[in-house]
Amino acid sequence: MAEWRKSTYSANASDCVEVATGIGIRDSKAPATHIEIGAAAWSAFLAGVTRER
Question: Where would I find the DUF397 domain in this sequence (predicted)?
Answer without folding.
Answer: 2-49
